[in-house]
Amino acid sequence: MTSVHTPADEAEARAVQDELRSRVVFDEPGPPPGQGLVAGVDVAYDDERDLVAAAAVVLDAATLDVVEQATAVGRVSFPYVPGLLAFRELPTVLAALDALTVTPDLVVCDGYGLAHPRRFGLACHLGVVTGRPVMGVAKNPFTFTCAEPGPARGDASALVAEDGSEVGRALRTQDGIKPVYVSVGHRISLDNACAHALALSPRFRIPETTRHADALCRRALRAAVGHGASGTSSQP
DNA sequence: GCGACAG
DNA sequence: ATCTTGTCGC
Predict the structure, then answer these.
(1) CATH says A29-227 is which class?
(2) Best CA proximity match to A126, nearest among A107, A98, A104
(3) According to the annotation, is A110 in a ligand binding site?
(4) pTM for the whole thing?
(5) Domain ranges in chain A?
(6) Quick one: pLDDT at residue A219?
(7) Percent of chain A clearing pLDDT 70 (strictly above)
(8) Could you say which of A42, A60, A146, A233 is the most buried, measured as most Cβ atoms within 10 Å of its Cβ?
């Protein structure tokens, strides 16, 4: 049962990031696309009731069929601060992942990994905490810049930070559709992460993993609010 | 100093 | 993230 410490303030959160950042592994290629188990994780909030629901959905990478899924509901323990998203989302995401009976070969986050102001986005954080391969797929370029990738599915361009380093890639997953932004989290290469993102998006812009997790966490949140239940709490 | 800024 | 109808399209 893994967990994420909830900092008392932003300064402590940044200190935690600095401490964990050195443990990210970037020199492993990661699991091959199209085989094994890939999990998608996402969360939904109810600020009124201070609730957060997380979902973890495991897909068979070859068929994209759902193999298993789990949810967890907890209380929001950290405010939304750009750059510190992990502290808001991961406690409940970990609870959902812990509820799975299978261990996915790769986890896909809705957000960034290395492409982060402090080079330690939630995908890196989740990777270090679980020790498992993790990558991030975001819907916006955040603070980074990139050239417009080619128009065809599979076309990509470098996502560049202020210092000129490539921190991720803008990847077109569907012809003529706005690209997604891929970055590595832990124990996977950028090339392989892009290959996975493409394999997971045969029909829509967003990877099937994220689409399933998004739908499930919203359902879990509605159920929690509707029944006033707390589900598998991330903070007992 | 102020604003922008993954979800 | 979330607030939100009808509408366009497969």
Answers:
(1) alpha beta
(2) A107
(3) yes
(4) 0.94
(5) 29-227
(6) 94
(7) 96
(8) A42
More confident residue, A229 or A30: A30
Beta strands of chain A (E only): which ranges? 37-46, 51-60, 66-75, 106-110, 134-138, 145-146, 156-160, 166-171, 180-186
Percent helix, percent strand, percent coil in chain A, to nearest 5? 30, 25, 45
Instruction: Give residues 117-136 of chain A lying near strand B (Cβ < 7 A).
Output: 117, 121-123, 136
Tens-place pLDDT, residues A79-137: 999 999 999 999 999 999 999 999 999 999 999 999 999 999 999 999 999 999 999 99
Cα dist from A155 to A20, A43, A219, whole Å: 33, 29, 34
Can you give the distance from the CA of residue A25 to the C1' of nucleotide C5 in angstroms? 47
